[in-house]
Request: fold
Amino acid sequence: MKKLFLLLILSLFSIQGYAGSCPDGSDPVKSISDDGTYFVYKCGGSAPSSSETSKKTTTSVKAKPSKLEISGKSVGQFNFKKLSENSNPNLGMFTIEINKFDINQDGHDDLIVGITTFNTDDRNQPNEFSKPVILFWDNNIKEYVVDEDVQKALPFLYFPRRIHGSINPKNGLTHLFIADTGFDLAGYDFSSANLPPNCGAQNHLITYDPSSGKVAEVKLPKLWDYTHALAATDMNGDQITDYVVLNSPYIKYPQKCLFNGADYTNGNYILYSNKNSGFDKVNINLNYKGYSKTPTITSGIAIVDENNDTFLLLGSEDPGDSIYALKKDSKTSFTETSRINAPAIMRSDGRSGAYSEVLYADVDGDGTKEVVASINTSNWTGRYIQLLDFSNGELRDRSEDVVQSNPASEDSNDWCRHLYFNEQTSWGQPILTCNNGTYQLDKGRGSLYTWTDNKLQPAKIKAINLTNWIRSIYPVTIDQKTVFVGQELTGQRKVNGHSFYDVKVFYLMKPPMSEAELPVVGSEISNSFDGRYRFDVFRHNDDEGAMLLGGGYIEIKNGEMIIEKDKRYLKTGPKDLYDTFSGQINEKGKVSGSVELAYLFGKDRSEVFTLNGQIDKKIWGDSPREDFFRVHMLLVKE
Ligand SMILES: [Ca+2]
Ligand SMILES: [Ca+2]
Ligand SMILES: [Ca+2]
Ligand SMILES: [Ca+2]
Reply:
């Protein structure tokens, strides 16, 4: 049976600062989530990221009921093992850091997928490199495509953790800054004498010329560092984005590293754009108040406030456990003006919470931007959204205005890797997106937040024609509309009993189409079969034949088929799955539609089946990802 158990342990990153989360190097423990719909793991990772704010500064936020209906379709699948050009068959791909930007400047967001390698023990491997992959949105075929010439020109990376895109207005080139941290010790045995050293890695600034399609690189200082956070904005007034490179001090045994003529640093610096289309490195001092030990910065942004002062807003982890505002005193120095702690609820195993992302956006729609920060526990589980006002250098916590979803949970992927705020979306309201590696359409939790009833709260999601397995969703602008792209793992490959998933399927997720947009299959929808029908649904394979899964009643009205809420049942899962049913019938009695069904006994597994058949015969349902079982429905008129 070709089925995906999706047992990947995602996001085991950045444990070096605190060997505590899986201290004995043992495998994470697998368990079933509270609602029984997916597996969860104890033991988690750290923070890649970047953030986005929309361009307008004011908006009128409507107090709409915040149920977002999302329908989707596949827009491409890619084998990232092949595309990474890492040929070691014993390693799997971890698409650790993905970001979006309109790289070829054609008006549609593209994706850049950073990749690192993990072995069958879920450990990052020294001296293994992978290429990132750029997926261009092709608006003619409405799918993502790879450009082979672009792929050829991209550099090999170690562990890309932060990616930032911008356009250089002086020469029109797209700039992609990729902060590479190098080897990550997550999952390693810290008591071992043979622990590999952390050596950091070279950062890259890739350019893309939209007029020629050529990729090149701007030379950065030959320097290895562990770039945990990256703040990017123009800080020297030439409109070209500058980079505040914030490094964690993890290069402890430089004598064991092969820098190959490069330098290394554990310090922070800014790369200021210069007149020669290059960048000058300036070391910076971050002056904290009242600390004997410097915080480890894990996330941050640079902003210019309404008084034209430049600030760094930095999130930290042990030691530090706070968000800091630091004001720029000079080209080389920033001084703390304010600090707010992470809440105690995010402490776990005696360690304080850790900040994965900071965002500056007007999420409450009053015309003034707030600071939004995401916090997880030190083993990268759970999710806490901190909302702060920021004025004259002072942060003020107003997290009482947030309805929290799942703080301090044990689910290893349920933390926000990225935060995005989009003021204008295809759903007609602003949406804050918490991007993470867990199943983001999960009804009980919610990954999308709206400002409703004077609070930032998780929006209820109704997914149509989409599987629950979609993870890692990003808001993207395509055809001037902000929609989402989500991903699903497939392409299972077994190595020593361990499963790697080399292929990702991408889904474009939009509001459901209006009736006028719906394709009419065959001929006109017809009312000649209207009435009430008893239905039974079966699963089928050639060996075991048909097995009854459930049943109920269907009402057909003007050719539209609706499953009645009463008297319906499903032996293999929640009967609410019937809410995903849509179907219609034409004048010749041909039924077309789809439904998500659980189809295994004693296991949580569901797929979306596309339904086709005559109303008086078996109406067959097929899923592109399930080739062992089919389902069929039988209808009998009452
Ligand atoms: Ca594009
Ligand atoms: Ca680096
Ligand atoms: Ca600049
Ligand atoms: Ca505001």
About this structure: Residues 76 and 118 are 24 Å apart (CA to CA). The radius of gyration is 25 Å. The longest strand covers residues 481-495. Residues 234, 236, 238, 240, 242, 273 surround calcium ion (ligand 3) (CB under 6 Å).
